[in-house]
């Protein structure tokens, strides 16, 4: 078989970069299926960072990837925990700076992240039988801006993080703001509580 090269050409003036388009679909309402507000990690690559990275690097990674949450990963693909934009600016860095007499620039992701053991998760199967209103109620109950969706162990794999639900994404999809009131937490720091 004879191989030929592909035809090449020079870019015409005014050539632009194709922009990602969200899939067109039915608008999201409180009655929509719960999975409509989940970022499915089998379709979207998880944004990750190593625990030894500086907080400034975590912030830059969030900006570059357009996210407010990073999975903290020491060894792919296993998850150590999460760090959010709130963790970068919240009370944790201030408390650690005061307790250790260090500078903000010295803090690492491991210093302020939320370890996997304290995160709230929901089961993928439960989410499949829920609606958006139930997801919002769950966020209100646990007082978090994010929920992790876990898929049970299956043939050939153990339990795995399958998706993320973000309050910001729900607000964007619904086209409305869901109020937030800060409530003190017994074991960590202030946890947000959602209002109707």
Q: Which ranges are low-confidence, i.e. pLDDT below 50, for 5 or more consecutive residues? A: 181-196
Q: Any idea what the shape is?
A: globular
Query: How confident overall, as mean pLDDT?
Result: 85
Terminus-to-terminus distance: 67 Å
What is the succession of H and E elements? EEHEEHHHEEHHEEHEE
Largest sheet, in brief, is: 4 strands, mixed
Level of helix content?
25-40%
What Rg is obtained from the alpha carbons, in whole angstroms?
A: 20 Å
**So how many helices?**
7
Tell me the structural class.
alpha+beta
Structure characterization notes:
It is built from 7 helices and 10 strands. It is of the alpha+beta class and 196 residues long. Strands 1-8-7-6 form a 4-stranded mixed β-sheet. A hairpin with a 7-residue loop joins strand 9 (180-183) and strand 10. The protein is globular and about 70 Å long. Residues 181-196 have low confidence and may be disordered.
Descriptive labels:
four-stranded mixed sheet; disordered C terminus; alpha+beta; globular; 196 residues; 7 helices
Quick recap of the structure?
By secondary structure, this protein is of the alpha+beta class. The protein has helices at residues 55-65, 85-89, 91-100, 109-112, 124-128, 132-142, 167-174; strands at residues 38-40, 48-49, 69-72, 81-84, 114-115, 121-123, 146-151, 160-166, 180-183, 191-194.
Layout of helices and strands:
Elements: E1 38-40, E2 48-49, H1 55-65, E3 69-72, E4 81-84, H2 85-89, H3 91-100, H4 109-112, E5 114-115, E6 121-123, H5 124-128, H6 132-142, E7 146-151, E8 160-166, H7 167-174, E9 180-183, E10 191-194
Parallel strand pairs: 2-3, 6-7
Antiparallel strand pairs: 1-8, 3-4, 4-5, 7-8, 9-10
């Amino acid at each position: 078989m004879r191989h030929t090269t592909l035809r090449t050409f020079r870019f015409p003036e005014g050539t632009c970069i194709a922009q990602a388009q969200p899939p067109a679909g039915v608008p999201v309402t409180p009655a929509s299926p719960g999975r409509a507000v989940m970022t499915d990690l089998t379709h979207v690559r998880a944004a990750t960072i190593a625990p030894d990275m500086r907080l400034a690097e975590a912030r830059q990674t969030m900006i570059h990837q357009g996210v407010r949450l990073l999975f903290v990963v020491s060894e792919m693909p296993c998850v150590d925990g999460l760090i959010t934009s709130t963790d970068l600016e919240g009370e944790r860095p201030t408390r650690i700076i005061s307790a250790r007499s260090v500078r903000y620039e010295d803090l690492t992701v491991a210093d302020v992240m939320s370890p996997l053991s304290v995160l709230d998760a929901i089961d993928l199967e439960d989410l499949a039988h829920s609606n958006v209103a139930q997801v919002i109620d769950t966020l209100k109950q646990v007082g978090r801006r994010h929920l992790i969706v876990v898929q049970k162990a299956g043939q050939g794999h153990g339990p795995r993080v399958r998706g993320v639900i973000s309050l910001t994404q729900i607000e964007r999809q619904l086209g409305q703001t869901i109020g937030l009131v800060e409530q003190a937490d017994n074991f960590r720091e202030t946890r947000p509580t959602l209002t109707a």
